[in-house]
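Reopening this one. Same input as before:
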Amino acid sequence: MILQAAAKINLMLDILGTTEDGYHTLFMIMQSMGLYDTVTLTETGKPETITLSCSNEALPSDETNIGWKAAARFFEATGLPNPGIHIDIEKHIPFAAGLAGGSADAAAVYVGLNKMTGAGLSERELCQIAVKTGADVPFCIQGGTMAAMDIGEVLAPLPHIKPDWYVLVKPDQDVSTKEAYAAFDKAENVRHLDSTAMLRAVAAEDMDKVYSLVSNVFEQFIYVAGRVDIKAIMRECGSKVHCMSGSGPTIYGVFESEEAARLCAEKLIAAGFPQTYVCQPVKQGVTIVEGA
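Same output, byte for byte:
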């Protein structure tokens, strides 16, 4: 079975506080984007085994890979026999980028195994299992436009946003999510975001208002080399808004036309940012391409 796993961005991300067990409570507006990893699941005929290959050698191909963890968790939670599964991940979503690339791969594994094994779990049941693999995985299973709260596992669907064109730029820098939250814990005078106004704007499909409210609290205390230059180029090319996604470092800009977006992407690549992508919002997190 071949599946496409969509990246995600945050139209808003705020950290509301810290729980007693050390987790951070969040408010996010999350959006699936048409930038995909391809995940292929193959039955090997070697019962109870999981193997994994990945096109990016910098990522692990063993039980520490989140895709592997998803497969193990699926069979553990369902109690179904594992007929022997090989997972192949063709990476297009940059990793350590704030785009949920790993969570997207795990989501594809869950969706694919649910179909391949005939488990017949509902989307809700699948998400209840998947959240143990990662807080972003349930969103990546469902996709579209959603409000996400708590650690990210409480999800509420929202109207799909306007299909403008987005330019995503991953600077040559990785950001550790753990270190990003540690920076928040040390920060003083954090300016929180107007989540109520954003919810109302997205629900009303008022995109001008949405773009005026797009923001990411991490930008207040996470340094990303090149962010100023990237945003300046996006601004020069007519972006409606530009913001960092997740805990960084990817910056995205929003454009009315594909032509403007592709011109901006060309300028960014010429300026030394080769990991630049042009895409649009999509309404689904995981798509089965072959083998349904």
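So the earlier flakiness isn't reproducible anymore. For the record, The mean pLDDT is 95.
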